[in-house]
Amino acid sequence: MSTEQIEILLIDDEKNYLLVLESLLLDAGYSVTALSDPESALAFLDESEVDVVITDMKMPKLSGKDVLAHVKRDYPHVPVLVMTAFGTIESAVDLMKMGAFDYIAKPFANDELLLSVQNAAELAGVHRRYRLLHENLEEQYGRHRIIGKSKGIRNVLAVVDRAAPAKSTILISGESGTGKELVARAVHFASPRKDGPFISVNCAALNPGVLESELFGHEKGSFTGAVALHRGRFELAHGGTLFLDEIGELPPELQVKLLRVLQERKFERVGGSEEIEVDIRVVAATNKDLQREVEADRFREDLYYRLNVVQMVLPPLRERREDIPLLLAHFTEKATADNNLSRKTFSPEALELLSGYEWPGNIRQLENVVERCMIMASGDTVTVDDLPPEVKDEEAHLKNALDLLPAELNLAETLDRLEAALIRRALARADFVQVKAAERLGVSKSLLQYKLRKYGITGH
Ligand SMILES: Nc1ncnc2c1ncn2[C@@H]1O[C@H](COP(=O)(O)OP(=O)(O)OP(=O)(O)O)[C@@H](O)[C@H]1O
Ligand SMILES: [Mg+2]
Q1: Could you tell me which of 12, 298, 317, 395 has the fewest CB atoms within 10 Å of its CB?
Q2: pTM (whole model) above 0.85
Q3: Would you say the CB of residue 150 lies under 6 angstroms from ligand 1?
Q4: Nearest atom of ligand 1 to the alpha carbon of 182
Q5: Mean pLDDT, rounded, for 368-377
Q6: How far apart are CA 312 and CA 284, in angstroms?
Q7: Are residues 85 and 222 in the same domain?
């Protein structure tokens, strides 16, 4: 970071001295606001972005200590340099304890001051870059990144808004690719912990022993290979959010341990006896039906209730087809921007196929399909021919549909389910106008109505 970008607020009641210092700092390339009245300096601080504060110690009305206390309270990241001609060792220690970045006794050599300012400027630069990065993350993962206007998505957003400010544990369930991680991040960035860490652990990715160390950490020498102390994700997430992905895969012995942490917010590292207390918010996600896992004795019931304080269910994409056009537009924009491509539009026939497709891989699959189309289609329009085989191929289509049905169904039940699904789809595509849906299905309106009653299908 070049020195020009660093904004220094300089405060000294001795006007002559102030001018000398101002020109010294300007010559060194900083941007400087020099004020002789500490009260107006504090007002200036509230209005502008200041990177470094340099203040005199002894001033009428407000002392350097008052300025320091004010800055540390309201702008804890801004380094404060204190200059004084009346310094004693005790007050220097006091100032450092109060959080002063440095302390310089007058008279000082110019180089001495400039060196100290340079160090403070570097720290300020790091903070500024960190802030930018963080704003980027928020921009990338904030709630506004969740696209959709369907009732399902609006419900999810409403729960995000209501649950985010609290600390309660959240359980997000939904098929693969429905946006569980996206929602977990949105909760974090909408919560008061947004400046803290978001730490994620995939409970399915590691074997139980490694996972235990990953979650809770281990002490040096607690097992062969534990050559150093290792902090677990629970510790790393302190002050922030811990995202436990695929919680349904958590081995039974770790389920017990997790339950204890959730209850007491305390745990020990593997091989350790010291109790570690953490302030974390836990968000867990699963693509399994956890209740069924509980019934099958694969998941502890007490842990299930502990996790399930706030529940969010992400509907599969095929149950909120009205979001498909929005998502197509969103990912078209993204794919073309990311890959530096010109924008292409989907032909009406291609759109129809995409809207009617089952999307077993949900939004992740849709995102991939759009990206592939943007790269592969030769013209400005993506036609049916450009669509990947799994979307355009009716055979594949049917196979996807069949794969989604429970394996144990008998023929009649299976056919009933398929029929009900086809009718629902035809209705949705016909904007719920029954005559049109009947026409699409090639049946009479009265037969359709009979089937609607039979399957208990209502309007939307
Ligand atoms: N509503 C949405 N709006 C925009 N993008 C979305 C939405 N839902 C999901 N995505 C995107 O789809 C992709 C998959 O989402 P994510 O990783 O959150 O899914 P997941 O439910 O965690 O899947 P898995 O169970 O496979 O881990 C991501 O790139 C995500 O940004
Ligand atoms: Mg995920």
Answers
A1: 395
A2: no
A3: no
A4: 18
A5: 93
A6: 10
A7: no
